[in-house]
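QA checklist item 7 of 12: single-chain prediction sanity check.
[x] sequence parsed
[x] length recorded as 193
[x] structure emitted
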Amino acid sequence: MSIGAISPSSASPPPAREKQPAQVPSSITPAGPASASTASSPNTNFSGSDTATNLTPEALALVSQLKARDTEVRQHEQAHLATAGGLATSGASYTYQRGPNGVDYAIGGEVHIDTSPGRTPQETIERARTIQAAALAPADPSGADRAVAAQAAQLELQARAELATQQVEQATSKVQRTYGQEPLVPPKLDIYA
């Protein structure tokens, strides 16, 4: 998994015979607490009516596919952002492909989130649950999204084990304090004959 951000790129216009756009899976990417990415938004003006009339039917079909992919990718990344809450270290960043009409369309993206553990096991458990929810928020999570969710589940299990160990240590300490002290009133034995 990468920690850096994807910088937007514009590919040269595809030939008219190309039917399928390049598919880049969108993902939620873990980032350390000090990591940050920048999201850029190139010209995504979809009103290319002047150039749309000069395009071949194949190019128009490609533009339609790119528009659909752009919408899907943006919804996917917004689902991550909406669920990640304060753990998102930045907005979504996108990978772009330039359509035959000269417009850049998002074909992939990622959201960086802070996957570091919390200060306490309980805080780590809460963070891990939020990470899992953010990773699995889109309707169709990618393989990278599922991998992040699995890592968050592992983080939660480790925090639960640590919490259980702390609770056992606290209980043991309490028992030792209780039975290790002298009684407040010494026992007395009265013998009558």
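[x] summary fact logged: Residues 143-179 form the longest helix (37 residues).
[ ] second reviewer sign-off
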